[in-house]
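Sequence in, structure out.
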Amino acid sequence: VQLQASGGGLVQAGGSVRLSCTASGRTFSSLDMGWFRQAPGKEREFVAGISWSGGGTYYAESEKGRFTISRDNAKKTVQLQMNSLKSEDTAVYYCAAERSSSWYPPVEFRYWGQGTLVTVSS
């Protein structure tokens, strides 16, 4: 599975950004998808996940209510809408495919994209 993330950039605190990830190489509609992030000096952490059908969505506690994950199986894309951004949301955001664990932490995926940087200025 090849994953290409896009949509990162510089945004002011309180603002919004929408990340997108396009997949290729496997039957996208059969894959659970996820978003992770890695802030400078910190370990990579789970942000949000969505089941293959889109019927189930999962979020890290700190992102509930601010972030929304969605997918379009026809376009082979998964999106992460991030609202009310804070400086601590600054990180490289990674798209991931094919969950290899339960949805309970630690959530693990098999395939990873290259990441897109989101910088939130205060």
